[in-house]
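Two proteins follow. First one:
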Amino acid sequence: MARNEAPTGSQIPFNAYDDAPVLAISQAAALAGMHPQTLRQYDRLGLVTPRRTMGRGRRYSQRDVAKLLEVQRLSQEEGINLAGIRRILALEEQVSRLESRLDALATQLEGGRVFAAGVSGDVVMVPRGRRVRRTTADRGADPGRGSGQVVESSETRALVLWRPGRGS
């Protein structure tokens, strides 16, 4: 990023205090380098919607100011109209929500269960880092009576990973 280039919304690191609605419209407008009427227009269009006080006054957060700067950059430097900017912001928000959901699902999967299928067709839950050893007794055993011993071994060549909700 060049020295005189405004940071985009995805480049600015935020902390918990950046969502606090503490800036009046005049303060937010000054920080964003805009006229307060422009902020009111963006609010009416749904581009940047500040929180409201009990008296219906607008209160902006640092994150809102960063979003205002991004709207300004997209409009002035990229030449995108306000409808296009609204769509871009909505898509960025959707991507952010989906990434959060993906992170939550990946965290859930890390603690998930692993299953292996034996030669006899039995499905055995296997602790992570372990494999099912197929002994000669397993290979020649009656299909309904596989032992499916769980041991630490690298002899197994197949591991079935079952992820609920996929492909069904």
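Second one, unrelated to the first:
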Amino acid sequence: MNNSVGNTTRLLWAGLRALLVLTVVCGVLYPLAVTGVAQGIFPDKANGSEITANGKVVGSELIGQRYDLPLKKGQETSAPDLKWFQPRPSNGLGNNSVNTQYKLILSGATNRSGDNKELIDWVTAAKAAVIKDNSVPGHPVSPADVPADAVTSSGSGLDPAISPAYAQLQVRRVAERNHLGVAQVEKLVDQHTDGRILGFVGEPRVNVLQLNIALKQLVNGT
């Protein structure tokens, strides 16, 4: 009986020691080490790839934002504010009513097949809107010039970037709405176009938030 109690006590004590050691190592030391290495080597990415403007954090390089006008009475969705470059459509899984700068609070795809009627209706309506919004006097947009990312959402619904083709499609409209020269806005797009990672991974892209921050600075003359 005594041997049984003694063995049980030793096992419990061994288990408790293992729990304490693993808690300290895995729950304290390891997270501190990983955090320290991350902050030391790439602090920008470790802190969420924050983007700042005028000393304030205005977003992340990794999460897209909407640029819409205030919601009017009777409207179900806000109209886009056409003085800004617009991101990809964000047909995701839910709405965020707390921080209205962000359209989505959940990340995810629409999961519609290519022949799904609802998806076809979305794309058709989005294409018509892109053509209407970006056609300016003397420069109508051809349906053939509308790139795929202008009418489809990304797999996450949070894509922060658009293709250079979609950015270029918006140049004349943005220039007209902000009383800028087309060449000035084209230069902004060129300056904020990132190439393929390592020269061959992914596609060229334009971060919409960074581009719009630069646009605001140009408009304000700063």
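SUMMARY FIELD: The beta strands are 50-53, 56-60, 161-162, 193-194, 205-207. Residues 79 and 123 are 17 Å apart (CA to CA).
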